[in-house]
Amino acid sequence: MTLDEIRAQIDAIDSSLLALLEQRMDWVKKVGDLKKSNQTLIYRPEREKAIIERLSTLSEGKLSPKAIEAIFLEIFAVSRHHEMPERVAYLGPEGSFTHQAAESRFGTLSDYVALPEIRSVFEAVSTERVRFGVVPIENNQAGSVVETIDCLSEFDLHIAAEHIMPIHFCLASNSEKIQDIKRIYSKDIAFRQCGKFLKEMFPPDITLVPVASTSQAVLQAKDDKHSAALCAPVAAKIHLVPILFENIEDSELNQTRFLILAKDFENQLSGNDTTSIIAKLPDTPGSLARFLDDFVQAGISLSKIESRPLKGQSGFSYQFIIDFEGHKEQNHVKALLKKHENHVKWLGSFVKSN
Ligand SMILES: C=C(O[C@@H]1C=C(C(=O)O)C=C[C@H]1O)C(=O)O
Predict the structure, then answer these.
(1) Which of 37, 152, 153, 350 has the fewest CB atoms lying closer than 10 Å?
(2) How far apart are the CA of 299 and the centre of ligand 1, in A?
């Protein structure tokens, strides 16, 4: 076959794909109209996950589950945009890892607002300036993003979905020689993901400057020949700062989990859900042990528990952010949440990302 003949086959397939996508949009529009008349939510992460899982089992193997996910997340985002365009805030500036997480969920068509701090994303969702907010919550090598945990406690928002993404760092700088670099900017948690590289390449007295995000770090380093940033390669490219080293994270298994936040959001049960809560337990001996024992008795497994100091109090009082398997609408979960309703804040029940 000649190149032209092969391309003619591809063109024919693209025409069929387009016709099918347009047909799909017609059905999506009908779902959207139904949802509007019932005043129910447009974004249904658990339905999207179920579609991706079903298609992954149908695939003949030429497309990996990750590839199917990438293609269909974009189709869903375009569909939702067709049902109702929504504004999404994320921890910016442009080119942050959170921006990439937001785009994987909301596609390229959504109306994005890049905000300078995690707290500003919570504020934008709370005040309804935007419908959704995207923030990082934890990295599998470096631990939690404490600003997010503190804001989850402080604001009255819900977790609509989670998104887990591989994270690869680069070192970007306008410096010609690595020896000239005196300062490195990044988000605090990013330094902890690139500790080995920093130790190998720089003297111990190098100044590490924590800033609000990795893309902010690029902007700080941009105009100073003695500075560099640990950031996403895409941030370096957008802000035109040369990349000196790539893939400098300590572990190739480096992943970050992001949350999609919304006001008043309740997912339907998917059968593979995580519930997130914040528990403020009485400061008495055994209160945490008794609380956790209720999870054991109900056969509920915890996937995360982390303590954070309760702010504005004297002494040492703690709250706990807890993730566990199950959905608020399941009886055993419902019973547990009811029993502890006075000191538990439900943050969301959402389909597991993987
Ligand atoms: C069309 C729907 O709405 C949204 C779009 C989806 C899609 O394009 O398939 C799936 C779930 C929702 O986020 C639906 O709920 O079925």
Answers:
(1) 37
(2) 32
* Residue 133: closest CA among 93, 102, 95, 167: 102
For the full predicted model, state whether its pTM sits above 0.90.
yes
Residues with CB under 6 A from ligand 1: 28, 31, 42-44, 47-48, 51, 76, 79-80
Query: Could you tell me if 188 and 210 are in contact, meaning their C-beta atoms sit under 8 angstroms apart?
Result: yes
On whether the CB atoms of residues 211 and 285 are closer than 8 A, the answer is no
Question: In 3-state terms, the chain is what percent helix, strand and coil (to 5)?
Answer: 40, 25, 30
Q: Ligand 1 mean position to 263 CA, how many Å?
A: 19
Report the C-alpha gap between 71 and 143 in whole angstroms. Answer: 30
What's the CA angle centered on 136, arms 113 and 106, to 5 degrees?
45
State how far the Cα of 243 lies from the Cα of 236, in Å rounded to an integer. Answer: 7
pLDDT tens, position by position, 219-276 = 999 999 999 999 999 999 999 999 999 999 999 999 999 999 999 999 999 999 999 9
φ and ψ of 270, to 5 deg: -110, -15
ipTM of the complex, rounded to two decimals: 0.96
CA distances from 274 to 141, 164, 207, 346 (A): 21, 14, 39, 12
